[in-house]
Amino acid sequence: MSLLLSSVVVVASLFSGAAAINNGLAITPPMGWNNWNAFGCDVSENLLLTTSTQISSLGLREVGYDYVVLDDCWQDPKGRDKHGKLQPDLAKFPNGLKPISDQLHSQNFKFGMYSSAGEMTCARFEGSLDHEVDDANSFADFGVDMLKYDSCYHMGRVGTPSVSFNRFKTMSDALKATGKNILLNLCNWGEDLVHTWGMSISNSWRITGDIYDSFSRPDDLCACNTLEPGAVNCVAPGTHCSVLFILNKVAPFADRSIPGGWSDLDMLEVGQGGMTDEEYKAHFALWAALKSPLFLGNDLRDMPASALTIINNPAIIALSQDPHGRSVTRVRRDTEGIAKDEWGMGETHVWAGHLQNGDEAVILLNAGGEDIEMSVRLAEIFIPYGPGGSAPHVKYDWAIHDLWAHRMPQETAEALLAAKEVEDRVDILKKANWYNATELPYAKGLAKEDARLFGEKIGIAEAGGVLKADVKSHAARVFRLRRVKKEGDNFNAKSIARKGEERDEL
């Protein structure tokens, strides 16, 4: 085979997997709610159905949150029945699971459930290891649309990428064989380099130990927090991983997500109460821009208005649901001269990434202990398209749009939460002219230049110049840069971005 032909074969092989698992699901990162962070094992039929009603009446389904996911502890504590089938705990789910699924579907929600690729789940109920076919058929019978598939008690079937791949592939194949198209979310905490193979068999894959409600505090239960940022693999990733730890963990492979397959940074902690408003804003915006699945983890029936005004911001969600389907990547991390916070952490990040319409998302994160002015040159922002300022983007002025500028007013959110009738909440949302993605999907809204998705213009970054912003401690400024066109130019940002991605893939 000639060298030229060999190169063509390699390129064809690389691009043949560009659609990930290619089951038509999760073309943009999935969004919804999961009970685990707020409720753990305290689950019930009433919890799921009252929460789904709240999601709908607060307008959260209309901005994209359409999965309702039942996590661990739903199983009968006595184990499998005489036929080897999993059974729900009838004390928690007296009518079984299929009626819940039917009711959620009637409300235009999708139903998610949980199991583990182990002999037990993480809460020590029956796991699915070596029962994959039976359990996949049960999930299909329950009307499940998504399976969160954990990795506890795996009987030692871990330690190399191939061993973990084969263990999870068994369930992937079993779900496919049911004939029902079920989204598979792997949860092996980043072990065995899942970011290199997860997309072959699943629609999303966890890349770190479990999150907890802290912005930067290290914890020994997040066993990998002692590793240097950038370390890709570790043993026993654990729990109690901070927002900052997870960001540093994903940074070396933030570009691995593609439509249909997403790196999962774990569920959201917004509204739980352990972080400040600015920390929650940064957490939410970075999860969105990094294309993590966005699963709310708080009690939506009892939350502060400030939390609602974070999770329902359509200009931030539009970064997640952008049809280009590429994550922001970190173009700079600084630790020298940055004031430490109360946990001894101090660093700043610049994250940037291309969007479908040629815009650029830019996030300035201050994870230090003091408010500072941050700056970044356009040459750095656009470095994926040419180092040393050679990217053609650098020759243009860029309008700076603040994506938190039109956050829902506090009083509007308070009125929404206080309203007793669904009709009253609908009226409040209509008067606020709040974005409705079920009527105008994000792809169409972006194409139509819907102002609600673009924040507010606050300035210009001049050609060859610098983007500057004051950033509070433990906060992020989130911008959408929009190229200021020159008369007669033929600049094609989309084409240039695609060429940059081809270089990355090759």
UniProtKB/TrEMBL annotation:
It catalyses: Hydrolysis of terminal, non-reducing alpha-D-galactose residues in alpha-D-galactosides, including galactose oligosaccharides, galactomannans and galactolipids. One of its GO terms (molecular function) is alpha-galactosidase activity. It comes from the Eukaryota. Residues 346-411 form the Alpha galactosidase C-terminal domain. GO terms for cellular component: extracellular region. InterPro entries: Aldolase_TIM, GH, Glyco_hydro_27, Glyco_hydro_27/36_CS, Glyco_hydro_b, Glyco_hydro_melibiase, Melibiase_C. One of its GO terms (biological process) is melibiose catabolic process. It is found in: Secreted. The keyword Nucleotide-binding does not apply. Residues 1-20 form the signal peptide. Its EC number is 3.2.1.22. Keywords: Disulfide bond, Glycoprotein, Glycosidase, Hydrolase, Secreted, Signal. PANTHER family: ALPHA-GALACTOSIDASE MEL1 (PTHR11452:SF75), ALPHA-GALACTOSIDASE/ALPHA-N-ACETYLGALACTOSAMINIDASE (PTHR11452). Belongs to the glycosyl hydrolase 27 family. Hydrolyzes a variety of simple alpha-D-galactoside as well as more complex molecules such as oligosaccharides and polysaccharides. This is Alpha-galactosidase.
